[in-house]
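Fold this complex.
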Amino acid sequence: MSSMTAKQAAPRIRYLVAMSLDGFIAGPHGEADWITSDPDIDFAATFAQFDTALMGRKTYEQVTKAGYSSLPGMKTVVCSRSLQPADYSGITILHSVSRETIAPLKTASRKDIWLFGGAVLFRDLASENLVDTVEVSVVPILLGSGVPLIADTADRIQLSLTAHEIYKTGIVRLQYAVLPRHPQA
Amino acid sequence: MSSMTAKQAAPRIRYLVAMSLDGFIAGPHGEADWITSDPDIDFAATFAQFDTALMGRKTYEQVTKAGYSSLPGMKTVVCSRSLQPADYSGITILHSVSRETIAPLKTASRKDIWLFGGAVLFRDLASENLVDTVEVSVVPILLGSGVPLIADTADRIQLSLTAHEIYKTGIVRLQYAVLPRHPQA
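Structure:
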C-alpha cells in the first residue's frame, strides 16, 4: 500500500476528518472534545500536503467560533448560498458546487485541496464525482448521535482502501480512494 | 495486540458485525448485499468461538427471512417484548434485557455469546455495561443511510482498540474492548 504522505501530480480533493467508530464527525451540538490528540500523528506534515481548504458554511462557522477567519496558511473556500463576499475578506465564497465552480480551484492549487467538512458538502461533491479520497482517523469511541460522515442519501459510494495506519492511542487512520459512481438501478 | 482468536476464560458478550465506513450495519431496507465475501476471512473459525447467539426481534426476522429458525449450531436467544415462547420452538425468548436476565446466559455458555444485532439491543445492553467487545468488519463502502451500528443515544461509549486485521479486499477488521461506562454529567 502507498504511503499516506505520497505526493500526487494533480491536485486532488481529499476528505480528511476525524470520525467516531459509529460514523460521526462531530457530536449533536458540534462537539469536538472527543477527538483525542495523538503525539504520533504528524499534523504539520498533513497540513503541508494542502494549500486550499474547502468547507461548507456550518463548518466555517465552527472555524470562526474557534477564533479563526480562515485556515492558517491555506486559501479558504466556503460553499454557501447565503454568505456575501463583501462581508468576508480573506476567504473565497462559492455559491454553488459543481464541476464548473470547482475546476478553477484545482487549476489554482499546487497542492491538494482539503475537504474540511461537512456532511452535506461531501455528499454534494461526491454526487458529482468530485471527491478523490476519504481519509478518516477513527477515534475509539461511540458517540451514538451527531453530525454524520455523509449527509443522508440513498446513493452508495464504493471505496478502495489505499493505506492504513494504527496508532498507539487506538486511533486507526484509513485512507480510501473514491471509486467513480454509477447511478443505482 | 492480542490475537483475534484468543480463547477467553469467561464467556463474553461480543458485538461482531459488518459495517459500512459511515457506520451502518444494514441498508435502509435491511439490505446486506453490500457485504462482500472475503475468502481470507475464516468464518468457521469465528463461528467456533461462540455457542450462543443473542439478537433483537428485527434481526431475528432477518434470520428467519433467510430461511433459518435459529442460528446453526448455536443456542439462539431473541430479545423481544412481543414474541411468545409457545409460538417458537428451538429458540429462547427474553422479554427484557438486564443484568439479571443476561446472567443465566453467561452461566450456561461454554464459549462466547455473539451479539448478532441490532442497533437497539446493543444500545440497551451497553447502557447496562453488558457488552464486552465491539468487533466490526469495515466494508469499503458508504451507504449514506440505513441501520446504524448503535441506536440513537446521547451516551458516549469509550472503546479500547485490542486487535486489527487488514484484508486484501479492503475490509478492515477492528476489535475493541468496551470500557466501563460512566454516566454523563
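Chain B has a mean pLDDT of 92.
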